[in-house]
Design goal:
single chain; alpha+beta; five-stranded parallel beta sheet; 31% helix; globular; binds phenylalanine
């Protein structure tokens, strides 16, 4: 990450297949260095999975009915990428392009964990799990069970930490803690705290572990960020910088021919010859386009498996999650087929709001994807009611759902390699004058940062070659 610029000017002509974040970033960087880029995009507009839906938009789907988006003024639904980690290059592009950002609440102690039919606040689940883990480790330490690993000094230091980590009592017992939360929070009086936790066995059986460690990874660590007003401002600004006239939409590529002096690309409406080509289509779709790049390229392109992913936006006539549950942004994790509920990290205290009523992948996503939009909503509401009660089903003004495996010319939420093997590295190299790029060619699959890093890598290589050959 950080600022990026190709050094020196290049004058070559480059045809870029796909105007998603990868293709746009490549065109943007090449454009800054003087290249003449043309982008061919099969969909009706640029952006790819970077898709934000607002009232008046229409979302079509393969083998399914189109949906009219009915969200009210000022509301939006990020059908694709929504959260950005601080170390990601995405934020550098936001800064460079003047795309405003704000915090995205990824971890919220006030949100719920719903497992085995029970909902608890995340703070409660965390207090109990940390408490019991600390108790066990503290007692093992104290009894000398770890003496082969610990000096006397280590032992004291570890015990000091564990008392704090688990909020343990004088005998190193976890007996609950104000960290679990309150029925009535303290104010003029001391409030009424939750009752003591269940037993260690009960807490373990509740199975909250996965949910409370969700944001431990470097890619999910709080605070994360989001684009003010919807992620697609990144697309809008990139398109402005590149020049909208460089993008041909509705252009489905039908052939790629690598030639000694250039690349010829045909689409269902024309043909173009350029000095180089950057193919940024999803690998499973690129694999089906006739080309002369060799059987090993086709075989490699077939390896990454597309993952089904779905999301639903639920618009409510009032922000009951703020008013009643006192949840301001964040995510409730569940063991239901909705996987999770996202509360909006914008528009606090506004009149209406949009929840993400499911964000799932794999079989759960396929299950929802196979339903009609109405049935997706019905099912999502039935599930969410298990956490939030009857209010979850009242006051829904509109909904909009996306099944990425059913989005034309995309057909997947992301594509994953079974292994980062020689096929992966093969496609990181150009095949003749054709370069491949996309988040699927990085270790940042399913992140805009992957798309951008891949684009940077490829334009760097291409530019080096152009400078050497002139
Ligand atoms: N980037 C997507 C997200 O934040 C998908 C993803 C999830 C990727 C978890 C990696 C890990 O939800």
């Amino acid at each position: 990450p950080g600022d990026f610029s190709l050094q020196g000017r290049g004058a070559a002509k480059v045809v870029i297949l796909g105007a998603g974040v990868t293709g746009l970033t490549a065109a943007y960087e090449l454009g800054k260095a003087g290249y003449d880029c043309t982008l061919l995009e099969a969909r009706a507009k640029a952006g790819g999975r970077n898709l934000t839906l607002r009232g008046g938009d229409r979302l079509t789907e393969l083998n399914g009915p189109a949906q009219e988006v009915k969200l009210g003024e000022g509301l939006y639904f990020n059908a694709g990428p929504a959260r950005i980690a601080q170390w990601m290059v995405t934020l550098d592009y936001c800064r460079e392009l003047g795309v405003p950002i704000e915090t995205f609440v990824n971890r919220n102690a006030q949100a719920y964990i719903h497992t085995n039919g029970q909902s608890v606040r995340q703070r409660t689940a965390r207090a109990d799990m940390y408490g019991y883990v600390a108790e066990l480790l503290a007692k093992a330490t104290d009894s000398g069970a770890l003496d082969r690993k610990l000096t006397a000094e280590d032992r004291d230091r570890l015990l000091t930490f564990l008392r704090r980590f688990g909020d343990l009592g004088p005998e190193l017992d976890y007996e609950g803690s104000p960290r679990r939360g309150f029925f009535d929070y303290p104010g003029l009086d001391e409030g009424s705290p939750f009752p003591p936790p269940g037993s260690l066995a009960q807490v373990l059986a509740a199975g909250t572990g996965r949910a409370i460690t969700n944001d431990f990874g470097h890619d999910q660590a709080s605070p994360m960020f989001q684009v003010v007003g919807g992620t697609d401002t990144i697309v809008t600004r990139l398109v402005e910088a590149i020049g909208a006239d460089r993008i041909t939409t509705g252009a489905k590529v039908t052939g790629i021919t690598d030639l000694p002096d250039g690349v010829e690309v045909t689409w269902d409406g024309g043909r173009i010859k350029a000095d180089y080509c950057i193919a940024t289509l999803p690998p499973h779709l690129l694999a089906k386009i006739p080309h002369n790049l060799g059987a090993d390229v086709t075989a490699a392109l077939r390896l990454p498996t597309p993952m089904s992913t779905g999301k639903i936006g639920l618009e409510y006539d009032r922000r009951w999650w703020e008013l009643e549950d006192r949840i301001y942004g964040g995510v409730s994790e569940t063991d239901l087929d909705i996987a999770r509920i996202w509360y909006p990290s914008y528009g606090y205290h506004g009149e209406r709001g949009v929840l993400v009523g499911y964000y799932n992948h794999g079989p759960d996503a396929e299950l929802y994807g196979a339903l009609t939009p109405d049935d997706r909503r019905r099912r999502a509401l039935t599930q969410g009611k298990k956490i939030h009660g009857e209010k979850y089903r009242t006051g829904v003004l509109s909904s909009i759902s996306v099944a990425w495996e059913r989005q034309e010319h995309i057909q997947g939420g992301w594509a994953s390699w079974p292994a980062f093997d020689s096929s992966f590295t093969l496609l990181q190299r150009p095949s003749g004058r054709v370069y491949f790029a996309g988040d699927w060619l990085t270790r940042l699959t399913a992140w805009m940062a992957g798309a951008m890093e891949s684009a940077r890598g490829v334009v760097t290589e291409l530019h080096k070659r152009v400078l050497q050959s002139s």
